[in-house]
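Preliminary data (for renewal application), acetamide complex.
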Amino acid sequence: MLRTARRDSVAHMASFRVAFVQGAPRFGRVAENLERGLTLAAGVEADLSVLPELWSSGYVFSTHAEVASLAEDATTGPTARALIAAARRDRRHLIAGFPERHRGRFYNSALLVGPGGVKAVYRKLHLFDREQEWFSPGDLPLAVHRVGPARVGLLICFDWRFPETARALALMGADVIAHPSNLVFANAQAAMLTRSIENRVYTVTANRIGVESRPGGRVAFTGRSQIVDPRGAVVARAGVRETCARAADVDLAQARDKTLTPMTNLFRSRRPRFYRRLVAAAH
Ligand code: ACM
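Predicted structure:
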């Protein structure tokens, strides 16, 4: 009986399609970067397109003045305006990374925008390496947002290294974790397969390619953007150096079904009182 009911609900669940954009922005060329990224996004049909981390600005900052001059207001800045225009034109939702200015602080943030305007901002919780010189760590709670029939959570790049973040989003009901990135560790894409498997969610990693060499340093990015399904299968993938956008259908029923065997439900099998240390303060 239960099985039949589940199959019926699969059949009636609305379709949802996600995409990533992969490429290399040019440092400081905000208008050009946004135009190129959103043109790539428009080239593949999707309900939600995810662009990489710090897409509008580039990654390797060299002075605080540079951060201050490129940081934007989350609702009125060039990234918000460009994303809203594209969301209305292409009738879809978009996520992109940008440097945010808010009340005298700077954050490594991502915007979720739909045809109705800005829906959410996420501020990267786990800053990587020199990012700590330029940005304040995220100060907003992890959250899940309705995007059409889907429930979407956001992480940014190095957050992947902290499985607690993806687990928290999954426990809040995320079907899809959008993951704008500028990945530098070669094992991050593989780890994201695990994030999908251990939470039975889709993950969409939109990564950068190439090398950014500036007075502030030289950083090489790993490409290989991917969409991973709740069983850990890669359903869309880019190459190491490709500039592209790629999409895949999301099976929302699959993401919502946490059943592993008739007697084993992924979430109900958890024993959180034995791992309270996971959420204890660092020491
Ligand atoms: C990173 O978090 N951009 C490595």
